[in-house]
Amino acid sequence: MKKLIFALILLALVTPVFAMDEVYYINVPVERIYPSSTGYVVQYRSSSSVIATIGIPNDWFSDSAGSAELIRLPSAADWPTMSVFYINGEFSHVRLYVHRVKGHHTWGNIPQGTDVSRFFTDKESFKLDF
Predict the structure, then answer these.
(1) 54, 113 Cβ separation under 8 angstroms
(2) Which of these, 64, 75, 110, 119, has the minimum number of CB atoms within 10 Å of its CB?
(3) b or e along 62-82 (b: 16 or more beta carbons within 10 Å of the residue's beta carbon)?
(4) Largest CA distance in the chain
(5) Quick one: DSSP state of residue 69?
């Protein structure tokens, strides 16, 4: 009986280790953020130091279980970053850490009438140029 109880306890302790998801993230420095009616157009520095551009749709920010979060940095931190989270190799969500003052030079403006739809073509996934 003691061996059975010991085996069950051991099984209960070891099973969660094998059931864990692989979670990782990629953090990239953001050069500029452009708010638009469709979402945020973000220019970021890729691993090869090339500036790449991606769009984050507004509806990703809408609900608590959304695919994106906008986090305003504390006053001491002044450079925005973007963290993209993956679970088991699949996109999970993105966090955009931005300067709290929209007058900061990392915030930009898109001229009215500019077509930014090319940055919002795939609303199901999020692929960084890395």
Answers:
(1) no
(2) 64
(3) eeeeebbeeeebeeeeeebbb
(4) 76
(5) E
Tokens of 73: 């940095």
Number of H helices, E strands in the chain: 1, 6
**C-alpha distance across the termini of the chain, in Å:** 56
Query: Which residue's structure tokens are 């109880």?
Result: 5
Residue 99 three-state SS: coil
Tokens 């994106």 belong to residue: 68
Amino acid (one-letter) located at 125: S
Sign of CA dihedral 4, 6, 12, 18: negative
126 has pLDDT over 60: yes
Counting every residue written for the chain, the total comes to 130
pLDDT digits (tens, 9 = 90+) for 27-85: 999 999 999 988 999 999 987 889 999 999 988 888 766 889 999 988 777 689 999 99
